[in-house]
Amino acid sequence: MKPFQVCDDGGATANGQNAHRMKALGRQIAGFSLVEVTLALGVAAICLLALLALLPVASKTQQTSIQQTTANQIISQIDAVLRADVSLPPGQANKVCPDPPDPNTPCNWGALHGHWLLVAAPDTMYFTNEGLPTGNVNANLPPSDAVFRVKITYRTPPAETTSLADIAVSWPAAVDPANGGVPAGYIITTIAVNR
After folding, report:
1. How far apart are CA 189 and CA 168, in angstroms?
2. Which one of 44, 57, 75, 142 is CB 3.0 to 4.6 Å from 146, fit for a cystine?
């Protein structure tokens, strides 16, 4: 019987040949079995199905985000127009209400120029998907290219220092929240225009 020898690879063998055979055998069995490959493909397929199921949700979320951004841009446009319309010329602000205020002398709101004081009913406007105005103000039916419906409610009479308006933007334009319709999206804000 031959004594055991310690080989370079740290294994004990009767002669160095067994170590070489084991190394060669290890190289031949290095691979995946059919069961392991099938399980890996199954896990990958489940992950891909989960990702594909999320695509419609992500697309709808992106579309909603774009519409909310456009609605906010429409509100900014209307705010700028109303601020320009309600401003009085320099030196005219004190002609609306007496300075100092006198409870016996009412304010002369007729000194306000423009659209603000003349409108008691809300204005309805329509905007395209790009945020551009379309159609006529207070049209009975929205134009075919309208995506957003805007309702501007003026608060009259204006306060002594500010004029107020509620701006409500809803979409789609064909749905009227005032008549009980449920829009896909809705944003409302109140603006105070300092005079």
Report:
1. 6
2. 142
